[in-house]
Predict the 3D structure of the following.
Amino acid sequence: MHAQAHNQKRCGVDLITYSGTVAQWGSLYLVWDADNWCGVGQLSPTPFGRLYSSTVIKGKGEETDHRGIDFGLARRVRIQLGRNYIRFLYSNNGKEWIELRTIERPKAFSGAPRLMAAGKYYDAADQPFAAPIAKASMDDGRAGGRISNLQVEATAASERNLNRAELKKLRAPKVEPVSATLTGNNDDPTFEKIAPFYPPMKSPREVVGVPAHPLDVGVDWLARLDVSPWTAPTAWFEVGTPPAPLGREGVPIPTPAARVPAHRHADDHA
């Protein structure tokens, strides 16, 4: 706890695809040296789990936090190493893989990785692959996780290079998906227009709030607001006389035709 927490093995082979099953906290890493490495996995900042991918180049880290997840379920994560790209992916069933992001392969990641590693989450400041090992951070003493079914295989020959068109698309400025639906018209975005930009939602929980804000709010499958994976929901809607929660286990949510008065109930922390 609060220190090094990973297993590592010499690699020395280029153009590989490194996969593993992660439950709760856990990450996979490809390491070129102490200051140049990349990783993919999941972590649980406030209030709940997220998939993430990161690169550390010349000691400087860049992390991308991806979609919220059901932190209690195990899933596969993967780093795919090509000649001119690196791709981070995940899968909920081990068969269908969903891309988290793809980056152009940096010069600092030239040649075969020196190490493969699997273990806890690190950021660049932890210096987990330096010698001697630096003390690493741990935000929550309850943190724990499992990693299993590690697999290393050659990246398929058909997937070892991005062609010119794919590289051009990768280098193009990123456009926020919802904004893209508004190009050329003044209409508000609809669910049907936005949905194709996002992978199918397998989790019964959505993220709402301000992008990059330190506190996300979860909306669970019963339409309750939740700001922590460890406590009960903090706000919900009640309907009827006497009031009862709008969403209850085993009780369907009333249709709009019910037309009953709604009363908001929340505790002091909502």
About this structure: The chain has two domains: 6-172, 203-266. The radius of gyration is 21 Å.
